[in-house]
Design a protein that fits this description.
This protein is 28% helix and 22% strand. The chain contains four helices and ten strands.
Amino acid sequence: MSKSTKEDFRKYCLKRLQFFSKKARIKKDKNICSSILNIISFYNPRTILLYIPLSMEVDVQPLINILRKRRDIEVYVPYMQGNTFVPVKYRLPLKKGRFGIKEPNYSNFKGKINLDMVIVPIVGIDETYRRIGFGAGMYDRFYEKLQIKPITIFTQLKLCKSKKIVTSTHDIQPNFIITT
């Protein structure tokens, strides 16, 4: 299905993501996390940015738990700051921040983090495989500041792809899209 504007297409994709049975959802999440683990094993990244999932996003929490046990990988998650975010080390407790997204307490770490891999939730993609997110532009602004572009993996429970180009050149593109 194609939609004429990015906003129309976003609404269409969000509506599609609302209807999943719990049993089907658990299996999809597990399969997607397994595929991500295979990519991690192949590329051997040292620093990975994941996300704390919202209800309609792929649940990567089990993946976060697995990666945190490994001593060779540092796990980061977004911490909302202004109109973008900064990566902070994943640690408990988590609290609800802006947009109802859980995040750890802010870290005073001021150094630069070179991320090797970033796992990004998507609402949809278009013909150019650029990301359509929730509309705030956080990931786009974050990527704009990166000097070295990490391996980027988009995740989605069910692929929602427009047959028209509805994104802009600043919208990010992935190395991989993992969906069911």
